[in-house]
């Protein structure tokens, strides 16, 4: 099992550009999450999904969109990137009490 | 909404015991979990409490009091490799998983 795989690992975007952060898991977990983590801070929930076809907003959803067409994939879309979206993005999937995280995508918006 | 509070920093010496507290406010509470993160890497799961009491996993233990909306992580026989950030997280109704701001633990020789 690869676990949770995030791509890309690093990305530099210009202000106003768009991109999709990919997240895939091979553990057949129903629950999936997107978090952002700013330097020295905690994990802020952007969006989450409790199963294919179901998504819901987290704590900081503005400027982002998600879709969940399959159990395995949970892409995060950034439209009109802004410097405030510079952060490390973590995707996670969860089985019962335990969440498994990907290695993160380090995004810089300039 | 949900909120969690934990100390921002804790320092302890090798071989000692340290306790990291977490208080929370949430609706539809299911459980409290703890995660460790080294140097901005992927957080890793440590423990989960759904019921009141103490859960022990090797050198790490976690405690929950649902009536006090309070929990803690206890690390025993501290090692240098335990220097990391520790996050409590609330698992609540609907599948939402909300994290605290994290506690940076520094273990000194």
The tally of strands of chain B reads: 11
Distance between the termini of chain A: 36 Å
Please state the CA-atom Rg of chain A, rounded to the nearest Å: 13 Å
**Helix-strand makeup class of chain B:** mainly beta
- Spans of chain A with pLDDT under 50 lasting ≥5 residues? none
Q: Approximately how much beta-strand content do the residues of chain B carry?
A: over 45%
Low-pLDDT runs of chain B: none
Give the largest chain-chain interface (CB within 8 Å).
A-B, 26 and 23 residues
- Mean pLDDT across the residues of chain B is 95
Alpha-carbon distance between the two ends of chain B: 41 Å
Helix content bin of chain A: under 10%
How many strand segments of chain A? 11
| Share in helix of chain B | under 10%
Major sheet attributes of chain A: 7 strands, mixed
Task: Tally the helices of chain A.
Answer: 0
Per the principal axes of the C-alpha atoms, what is the gross shape of chain A? Answer: globular
Principal-axes shape call of chain B: globular
Run of helices and strands of chain B: EEEEEEEEEEE
Textual characterization of the structure:
- The complex is a heterodimer of chains A (110) and B (109).
- Chain A has 110 residues and is mainly β.
- Chain A contains no helices and 11 strands.
- In chain A, strands 2, 4, 5, 6, 9, 10 and 11 form a 7-stranded mixed β-sheet that branches. In chain A, strands 1-3-8-7 form a 4-stranded antiparallel β-sheet, with no helix packed on it.
- Chain B is mainly beta and 109 residues long.
- Chain B has strands spanning 3-5, 9-13, 18-25, 29-37, 44-49, 53-57, 60-65, 70-75, 84-92, 97-99, 103-108.
- In chain B, strand 7 and strand 8 form a beta hairpin.
- Chain B is globular.
- Chains A and B meet through strand 4, strand 5, strand 9 and strand 10 of A and strand 4, strand 5, strand 9 and strand 10 of B.
């Amino acid at each position: 099992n690869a676990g949770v795989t995030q791509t890309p690992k690093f990305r530099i975007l210009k202000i106003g550009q768009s991109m999709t952060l990919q997240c895939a898991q091979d553990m057949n977990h129903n629950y999936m999450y997107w978090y952002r983590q700013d330097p020295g801070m905690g994990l802020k929930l952007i969006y989450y999904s409790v199963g294919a076809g179901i998504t819901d907003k987290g704590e900081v959803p503005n400027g982002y969109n998600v879709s969940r067409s399959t159990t395995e994939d949970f892409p995060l879309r950034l439209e009109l990137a802004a410097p405030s979206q510079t952060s490390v993005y973590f995707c996670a999937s969860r089985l019962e009490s335990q969440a498994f995280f990907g290695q993160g995508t380090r995004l810089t918006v300039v | 909404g949900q909120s969690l509070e934990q100390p921002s920093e804790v320092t302890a010496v090798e071989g000692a015991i340290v306790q990291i507290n977490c208080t929370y406010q949430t609706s539809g509470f299911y459980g409290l979990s703890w995660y460790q993160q080294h140097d901005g890497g992927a957080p890793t799961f440590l423990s989960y409490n759904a019921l009141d009491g103490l859960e022990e996993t090797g050198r790490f233990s976690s405690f929950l009091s649902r009536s006090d909306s309070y929990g803690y992580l206890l690390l025993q026989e501290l090692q240098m490799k335990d220097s990391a950030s520790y996050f409590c997280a609330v698992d609540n109704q609907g599948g939402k998983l909300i994290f605290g701001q994290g506690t940076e633990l520094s273990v000194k020789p």
